[in-house]
Amino acid sequence: MNYVYILHSKQDSNLYVGCTNNLMRRVREHNNKKVYATEDRIPLELVFYEAFTNKNDVFAREQWFKSGFGRRHMQKMLSNTIKV
Q1: Which CATH number does the domain housing residue 7 bear?
Q2: Residue 7 near residue 65 (C-beta atoms within 8 A)
Q3: Alpha carbon of 32 to those of 23, 27, 48, 65: distances in Å?
Q4: Structural domain tally of the chain?
Q5: pLDDT in tens, 7-66
Q6: How many CA atoms lie within 13 A of 54 on its CB side?
Q7: CA within 13 Å, CB half, 65
Q8: CA-to-CA separations, 5 to 48, 49, 68, in angstroms, rounded
Q9: Which whole-number Å values give the CA distances from 79 to 27, 48, 50, 71, in the listed order?
Q10: What's the sign of the alpha-carbon dihedral 54, 56, 60, 62?
Q11: Cα angle vertex 7, ends 38, 54, to 5°?
Q12: DSSP run (H or E) holding 27
């Protein structure tokens, strides 16, 4: 399986979107400062993920979440989970 995921930084309340084929390993890497983009934002909490069987679909979904419309949708979708 391939996953698109959203992490919430408890330090600065920002969201991070990524994709992987091993979700739990990737979240551990983020929280162990092995990912440059998030190393100064830990601790990070997994707040959302979606599973895809096709790698191209997961990449397309990640790019959509990173677009302006996708980011607004993501914040609205998670408004009860986090305060952004």
Answers
A1: 3.40.1440.10
A2: no
A3: 14, 9, 19, 24
A4: 1
A5: 999 999 899 999 999 999 999 999 999 999 999 999 999 999 999 999 999 999 999 999
A6: 4
A7: 24
A8: 6, 4, 17
A9: 21, 12, 18, 12
A10: positive
A11: 105
A12: helix 23-31
CB atoms within 10 A of CB 54: 9
Cα separation, 80 vs 57, whole angstroms = 27
- Domain residues for 13? 2-77
Contact 4, 50 (CB under 8 A): yes
32 token code pair? 């162990």
Q: What is the C-alpha R_g of the chain?
A: 12
Burial category of 44 from C-beta neighbours within 10 Å (exposed 0-12, middle 13-18, buried 19 and up): buried
